[in-house]
Amino acid sequence: MSADTRAILLNKDVIAVDQDKLGRQGRRVAKDGNGEVWVRTLADGKRAALLFNRGETPVKLTVNWAQLDYPAGQSLRLRDLWAHRDLGAMKGSFSAQVQPHDVVMVTLTPES
Q1: Which of 17, 22, 23, 70 could form an SS bridge with 43, CB 3.0 to 4.6 Å?
Q2: C-alpha–C-alpha distance, residues 76 and 112, integer Å
Q3: CA–CA distances in Å: residue 31 to residues 5, 17, 77, 104
Q4: From the centroid of its chain, how far is CA 15?
């Protein structure tokens, strides 16, 4: 197996979302052409969001806090699960340019 395939299959951050003990199924909260946004509530109160591009060209996708059942003014810390890096705190929404047939997956944690 290639190093890229191994990194995908053994990604501990993504596996943690998949195996979250709450067991709540993700749900699609937005669809625009070939772009989709999916959200999953996690046992620790965080949310996971997946921005998915089914198309042949890059698309900008946005998840807003209302889709996550958070108030727009809530500050959330974001972590990119594929890049293994923190993106900082944001309010209101998160947007990303998603390449063709690719995903951006983040967890969103409320700040106190």
Answers
A1: 22
A2: 9
A3: 28, 22, 24, 15
A4: 13
Sheet holding 35-41, edge to edge: 27-32, 35-41, 47-53, 102-110, 75-80, 85-91
pLDDT digits (tens, 9 = 90+) for 60-72: 999 999 999 999 8
Higher pLDDT pick, 26 / 112: 26
Q: Quick check: 74 and 55 in contact, CB under 8 A?
A: no
CA distance 12 to 14: 6
Q: What is the DSSP letter of 5?
A: H
